[in-house]
Amino acid sequence: MTIPNSKKHITAGSYSKQWFMASMIALAGTVAATTVKAQTNGSNSPYSRYGFGLLSDRAQGFNKGMSGLAYGMRGGSELNTKNPASYSSIDSLSFIFDAGFSLQNANLEQRGQKVNAHNSSYDYLSMGFRASNNMGISIGIMPFSTIGYNISQSETLKDNVEITQANTYSGDGGLHEVYAGLGWKPLKFASVGANIGYLWGDMTHTVLASFSENTIASRRRQYTADVRTYKADFGLQFEGRLNTKNSFVIGLTYGLGHDINSDSHYYDQKIENNTAIGDTLVATNAYQLPHTFGAGLTWMYAQKLRIGLDYTFQKWSDVKSPTLINTGNIGGQSYEARTGNFTDLHKITMGCEYIPNAEGLRRRDHIRYRAGFSYTTPYTLVNGTDGPKNFLVSVGVGLPIANIHNNRSILNISAQYERVKPKAAGMITENYLRLNIGLSFNERWFMKWKVE
After folding, report:
1. What pTM value is reported for the model?
2. Three-state secondary structure along 180-245?
3. Does residue 22 register a pLDDT over 70?
């Protein structure tokens, strides 16, 4: 039946979409609450003993197969949290829910001895949608750093070879980030964006010296911190077209460096009869975040091939951290925030993605094939010298989930080989094989039906 002179706009599936959104937000909160607690399972590296631990690459399912290539990446069906300017490209009909986790096998080698370890960790959980014309919004949670190690060694005392001293080095914790971001496209060729986040987490490092002779008291030295602060990251993207088949995107990012008003505690204790006795030292305002700069260029050919290059610089050499100092006075030690424990980080990333036929009708036409490589210098100093360098090679695929209800969601699978190579001889070399799995759920939420 036709209703004359009347128009009515109905949001497609509005009630089911609202219910689904509420379910997704509840699920996100539940997953975040549980996976954040499990994050420390993602590391067995002794190098997480230094600084904030192992830094997250912040990559997501679509670019993990490209070793984290991001600054010049933008697309209507992908969430690129490493450059918030990209949010302005989110499809106007889309709600994107993106989540990922990793499984890895670690091989640690030192002086011919090898140890294997298996880990799992969550990588990210994020959502994004179009707020208005040329403006997109994203919210999410992801790890910032990870600490997790347990190392033991034993030796006989020099003045009494019958007594053995066992030293155990252990650590756990890490930092996590929850963020809200906005991307806006004020000009046809330029977009700007920002992520404003909250950074929090606990960090604990313990050194325990115990002896085979029960009459000798054990000694425990422990460093703890509870970090709470804000985080701010900004991005720019410039788009250009050379001709009908060739286009490019230039991306720039900046992460704000600032003081963290969190204290660190140092405990030096003797343990006798299950009783700990000793001193506590406190370093006030002990931490800082570095200024971070990123620049990238991505070139696209015929909607089939994307190739990109990123460069990242983090100014860690100016960052202070808690430092134990021998004063030579009565008491002998102080615990203060000082610079000199870090070095500047440089990272180069190259990656590519190939789609056989973006306009094709067959499912295999839309499979995304990816590959990438990255090289990263350390940000920490180990015994006064630069820490290990990092080499990463990756390959991956994006498999469209095509059915009658959904043909835009993608299952992202990638494999990575990572080698952590120390500068000094005799230090631990690490090799990782990692499987990353991410699901980017892309649903048409805001399509409207018109009844006349």
Report:
1. 0.88
2. EEEEEEEECCEEEEEEEEEEEEEEEEEEEEEECCCCCCEEEEEEEEEEEEEEEEEEEEEEEECCCC
3. no
